[in-house]
Specification:
heterotrimer, A alpha/beta (about 425), B alpha+beta (about 180), C alpha/beta (about 575), A: about 425 residues, alpha/beta, 9 strands, about 45% helix, C: about 575 residues, five-stranded mixed sheet, four-stranded parallel sheet, 19 helices
């Protein structure tokens, strides 16, 4: 367990998350106090230096995002905390929300101050409804202690935080869809342009950040970026909270420095595969992420090294799968997920998923037709090229990467052998 | 002509046809709506809260119509929201809504025992309720309890490590 | 506005900033395939058929929702683009009931045309049509979700244009659907049957209820005397179905075609439009002079009537009590006409040709009875008439022009302009002015109430009385005027409301593809008819005067009230939440 670190997670277990006094007793809100003495440009500079990539999955540079949000003209701007952690095998935001809600509040205040927002919104997924009272309390106590509301700490900066509930829709993790949901509508993505940074929630300039991203910001504002940057690699500096689960002895959310190998993560941190089974594959970044075979388990967990293997960090989910699971069953499970979660708005995603599901079902039963795999690939490519939003674009990542890494499980080995001659 | 008169009768939306919306429930709904200051952007949260106080945990048409009138939101829009979100239901469920995680993590960690045990003990399949209206079973995507998978939720409460028949039974025993 | 230079398939095109790729491509005659795009509607970008390759872009780009930028290079015909467009089309087709021969839109279906274009007859995909039950229980419209391609054009028409909010998208993924709330049949919703949804549907998922078989039966029934009336807006739109230039006036050919079809007498609804002006104009004068609810609102448009009876029933007192021209004609056809001809009203079979789907509903209202029989027995839309003409093998374009029959064959220009938004207002003003002042109008044209702006208003000086009037078309616009009335802030004495955008020429029963451009041409044609007529004021119609002399007596008289007026009443659609039961 020594390979884990505690920067973003430093407060976990150190205070009672239901009490602001407990939080203040460990130095809580010093990040906000410090940030409010800095200029927006200084904070952006610091954020850029920390080189934090968005932790929701899209990996967009946070410093850049904040700089853009700050430069968009507008008196009334909005910061949204995306707590709609919907990727399967992802629960790291849950760990922050349940163990350190006040740091999230700090991150939001800092983001709001930096970009010039008056209001912040936390969009909490319905599945984390049990955390609602805790978050509600964190907001209320922050308000009654002068960290939220008008003229925070006599700096002239005013900021409110509103708590909104999701209702069970993975697609609402997408920024514009989440905004539709906060506006009281069904969650279907919006057309871009206009971009949400200019015209988002209630038509206002809007910044959307993931829970972990905001928590990191609070952390490096409090302690400076040096400690944070002492971890990780030159391409992927800093740390990351991963959600490690599946066929693993010690599943859980862990903060790790970038650069550990997947082997270290799975075996040293996760304790390896239980019951003497062998690692078969892993899926990184949730259902929209790709799968990798056991043969590349020595790849370092960094943006750049994973990219070389066609993998992504994404949400930070690491699903470990052993030899008891058939690849096709795994693919089917992912396909079932997207059949459940597609919003249905655009043709490629709604109908493409449906048709591919039928083909996958035939593979599961062993009743596939000769042209099935070709058809599935064809429509998977149509989805990734033509779908309206990121959900449809990435829904077939698992299938396509499974075909690539496990061709034999789709009956392709013979074909490949034949082609050699 | 005859047919149209029939239509008029079907249109009749007088109170006799109401099964669920009582005066008391209407007052509770009013409270919820007022709590959110009738803010239409809070619709999703309002519907979740209302669903909680309706027996069998769903939003029937007359309740949706009531909310539509109270909040001045078209009924079709409310229906779009109800039918869209997995946590909202337009069909009656049960006193206890069992949500069994069917996501890939619970699959690879082996949730067949959990599935089979529930089906065996309650005699219901997915999207079904027991005849006494006590239990409803639905499969649900990942609710972020992968670290304790296989898992399920009953009325929003999460239970994990459900690998044996006994562990499943023990949970169900809490919801008699 | 700044001009942008781009290249589409290596052809240079210069378009204003803010143009979409789809529109820019049209400029150089490249028709990028599309289904959810409609020129009069908001961009939806959900069908994804219009994807094209923009150089430098990682994935394909939807042409309907992407705006041009300087130096953009677009490719619409690469192998990748074509393969993907074709694949998307296959996906749509797999989810679509392919029994084309049974479909009213066969031969006039956008999906069919696209499949022809891409040479798709059948896909190797599994059919996945899992539809809701057919909704065919109302007199006006049929919804068949098995044919729905989920383009959302109807939703746009219902929510954004008409603001009726009956149709919505619902559910998600494979259960995604277009439906009223809780899958209710249309007649149990606030649907007004305007048919604007059917008018924009690219396929046959929402169509008019076809009554042509009923009419053929009546024509072939030797015991029936089958008469037909044709609404003002039909004659400027019917030509569309025979590929005539948009806005062609086909009155003479239309009459000839109706005679060929076997109708016994062919009459003009313009006649009863004039009659409506006599009654409604006098009703307005009465309300103005003797006191009555103001503003008074017109009652010709049945979609509008359904709207106020459903949603704004507390404002019913503002409605004129006049029946619509269709029903006035119907009432006369079952009273005056058979009396004059010495026939039993039961043997007269009255057909209307209307631009409107709501007219079918109106004709079936229980109160629309005269002498114990329905005033109008069958209502056909312009589209259905076109189908009858085609089915009879009539070469419409080659027909010799023919004339309406008497006694309901003369209509004035005032009656003619009923077909366009503002027309009823203008017609009423022409008559009201002259009746009140006893003087001739200096100019007959009230141009302020013409045209396609959503709400038009005018102030008319009648002697020393300033009459403020307003015209709204499209129910979304109507709502604005109704809200004023609700607040007691309406400055108007008289309001014309037509349910459909553009008025009846844009009705839900008109030939498909009645876009804004087409509507403008039809409106031009309507005013051309008016200009060209010798009589342009309803109270100067000699046959109308004869009708009052011989039969009705005077406007608003006893006989008029009996035949030409009605009571509009609440549709009782709203839930009554005031009498909730107590908890048991």
């Amino acid at each position: 367990m020594s390979k884990t670190v505690a920067i973003i997670t430093e407060n976990f277990g150190q205070y009672d998350p239901g009490s602001i006094h407990s939080y203040l007793s460990i130095g809580g809100f010093s990040a906000v106090k410090k940030a409010l003495t800095m200029s927006s440009a200084e904070i952006i500079e610091m954020t850029k230096k920390a080189a934090v990539k968005g932790r929701g999955g899209a990996a967009y540079d946070t410093g850049r995002k904040w700089a853009q949000a700050a430069s968009v003209p507008g008196e009334d701007k909005v910061v949204i905390c995306n707590a709609d952690e919907g990727e399967p095998c992802t629960f790291k935001d849950r760990s922050i929300l349940s163990k350190d809600p006040f740091r999230l509040i700090e991150g939001m205040i800092i983001a709001g101050y930096t970009v010039g927002a008056k209001n912040g919104y936390i969009y909490l997924r319905e599945e984390y409804r049990h955390l609602r009272p805790l978050i509600r309390n964190a907001i209320d106590e922050s308000l009654s202690n002068g960290f939220l509301g008008d003229n925070i700490l006599n700096t002239g900066f005013s900021f409110q935080i509103h708590l909104y509930s999701g209702a069970g829709a993975y697609v609402c993790g997408e920024g514009s869809t989440l905004i539709e949901s906060i506006e009281g509508k069904s969650g279907r993505p919006r057309i871009k342009p206009p971009f949400i940074k200019e015209c988002g929630l209630f038509q206002l300039p809007t910044l959307v950040n993931n829970v972990e991203t905001l928590a990191i910001a609070a952390a490096f504002i409090q302690h400076g970026v040096e400690e944070y940057l002492s971890h990780g690699t030159s391409g992927s500096p800093g740390t990351k909270i991963i959600s490690l689960a599946g066929n693993i002895k010690n599943p859980g959310a862990y903060e790790i420095p970038f650069g550990l190998t997947l082997r270290e993560i799975i075996y040293d941190i996760g304790g390896g595969i239980p019951d003497g089974h062998e690692l078969k594959l892993f899926q990184l970044g949730g259902a929209s992420g790709k799968i990798g075979p056991a043969s590349i388990v020595d790849t370092p967990y960094t943006y750049e090294d994973l990219a070389k293997e066609g993998l992504v960090v994404g949400s930070g989910g690491i699903l470990v799968v052993d030899d008891r699971t058939r690849v096709i069953d795994f693919v089917k499970s992912i396909q079932d997920f997207f059949i459940h979660e597609s919003c249905g708005k655009c043709t490629p995603c709604r109908e493409g998923n449906r048709q591919i599901a039928k083909i996958i079902d035939r593979f599961v039963e062993g009743s596939q037709r000769p042209d099935d795999l070709q058809t599935a690939e064809r429509f998977a490519n149509i989805m990734s090229n033509c779908a309206f939003c990121g959900l449809g674009e990435t829904a077939q990542s698992t299938l396509l990467s499974a075909i690539k890494h496990f061709p034999q499980e789709f009956g392709l080995t013979e074909v490949a052998e034949n082609e050699k001659h | 002509m005859q047919r149209l008169e029939g239509v008029r009768q079907m249109n009749s939306t007088k109170t006799e046809s109401f099964g669920i919306l009582t005066r008391e429930l209407a007052q509770e709904i009013d409270k919820t709506i007022n709590h959110y200051r009738s803010n239409s952007t809070k619709l999703v949260g309002i519907l979740l809260d209302i669903q909680d106080i309706i027996p069998k945990q769903y939003i029937p048409r007359e309740v949706a119509a009531y909310v539509s009138e109270k909040m001045n939101i078209p009924l079709s829009k409310i229906y779009d929201v109800i039918s869209f979100y997995a946590a909202l239901s337009d069909v009656p469920r049960a006193d206890y809504v069992i949500q069994l995680c069917d996501s890939v993590v619970c699959k690879v960690t082996g949730n067949t025992t959990l599935r089979d045990t529930i089906s065996q003990l309650l005699g219901i399949k997915e999207q079904e309720s027991t005849p006494d209206g006590k239990y409803w079973l639905e499969y649900t995507p990942c609710f972020g309890a992968c670290d304790i998978s296989p898992a399920m939720r009953i009325n929003g409460k999460v239970f994990g490590h459900l690998t044996t028949q006994d562990s499943v039974k023990a949970v169900l025993d809490q919801y008699r | 506005m700044k001009n942008i230079k781009i290249k589409i398939d290596n052809i240079e095109v210069i378009v204003p900033e803010g143009t979409t790729i789809l529109e820019a491509a049209k400029k150089v005659n490249i028709n990028i395939p599309h289904l959810c795009y409609h020129p009069d509607q908001a961009i939806k970008a959900n069908c994804r058929l219009c994807v094209v390759d923009v150089s430098g872009s990682r994935k394909l780009t939807a042409a309907c929702s992407s705006f041009v930028y300087e130096g953009m290079e677009v490719h619409t015909n690469t192998k990748k683009v074509r393969d993907m467009q074709k694949g998307i089309l296959e996906l749509i087709l797999a989810n679509h009931d392919q029994d084309c021969l049974k479909c009213l839109r066969n031969g006039n279906c956008e999906l069919q045309a696209l499949c022809q274009r891409f040479n798709i007859s059948k896909t190797n995909l599994v059919d996945t049509v899992d539809a809701l039950p057919l909704d065919d229980t109302n007199p006006s419209l049929i919804r068949d979700s098995a044919k729905c391609v989920k383009c959302n054009r109807c939703v746009d028409a219902c929510q954004k244009v008409q603001e009726v909010h009956v149709l919505t998208h619902s559910h998600r993924s494979v259960h995604y659907n277009i439906t009223p709330a809780y899958e209710m049949p249309l007649e149990q919703t606030f649907c007004v049957f305007c048919g604007q949804c059917a008018a924009v549907c690219p396929v046959g998922a929402i169509v008019e209820k076809d009554d042509t078989a009923k009419v053929w039966d009546a024509i072939y029934d030797p015991k029936k005397h089958v008469i037909v009336q044709v609404a003002p807006a039909v004659r400027v739109a019917l030509g569309d179905a025979f590929n005539l230039p948009k806005g062609t006036i086909v009155t003479g050919k239309m009459v000839a075609a109706l005679r060929r079809l076997g109708f016994d007498k062919i009459f003009d609804t313009n006649f009863t439009a004039d009659l409506t002006i006599m009654e409604e104009g006098n009703e307005l004068i009465q309300r103005l002079t003797k006191g009555g609810t103001l503003p008074m609102i017109t009652s010709c448009s049945p979609g509008w009537i359904n709207f106020i009876e459903g949603r704004y029933d507390h404002l019913l007192a503002h409605l004129s009590s006049c029946k619509s021209p269709q029903q006035m004609f119907g009432a006369l056809s079952k009273s005056y006409y058979p009396e004059m001809a010495g026939m039993d009203p039961k043997n007269v079979y009255t057909v209307s040709i209307m631009p409107c789907t709501a007219k079918k509903y109106e004709a079936q209202r229980p109160e629309m009875m005269t002498n114990g029989v329905a005033e109008v027995d069958a209502v056909l839309t312009t589209r259905e008439l076109a189908r009858m003409i085609q089915s009879a093998g009539i070469d419409f374009v080659a027909l010799e022009e023919d004339q309406f029959d008497n006694p309901f064959g003369i209509g004035t220009g005032a009656g003619a302009i009923f077909g366009a938004t503002g027309g009823v207002m203008e017609a009423a003003l022409r008559t009201a002015y002259e009746v009140i002042t006893g003087k001739g109008l200096p100019s007959l044209n009230f141009t302020e109430v013409r045209g396609l702006s959503g709400i038009k208003e005018s102030i008319v000086l009648i002697d020393d009385m300033e009459l403020k009037v307003a015209v709204a078309h499209g129910l979304g616009n109507a709502k604005i005027l109704l809200k004023q009335i609700e607040k007691g802030e309406s400055p108007y004495a008289f309001i014309e409301i037509m349910a459909c955008p553009g008025g009846c020429i844009g009705g839900g029963g008109q030939p498909i593809k009645s876009t804004r451009d087409v509507k403008e041409k039809r409106i031009e044609a309507i005013y051309k008819i008016d200009e060209d007529l010798p009589l342009r004021k309803s109270h100067k119609n000699p046959d109308i005067l004869k009708l009052y002399d011989n039969y009705l007596g005077e406007p608003l008289g006893h006989k008029s009230h009996q035949l030409l007026h009605t009571h509009y009443h609440s549709r009782g659609m709203k839930y009554n939440f005031s009498e909730l039961p107590n908890h048991k």
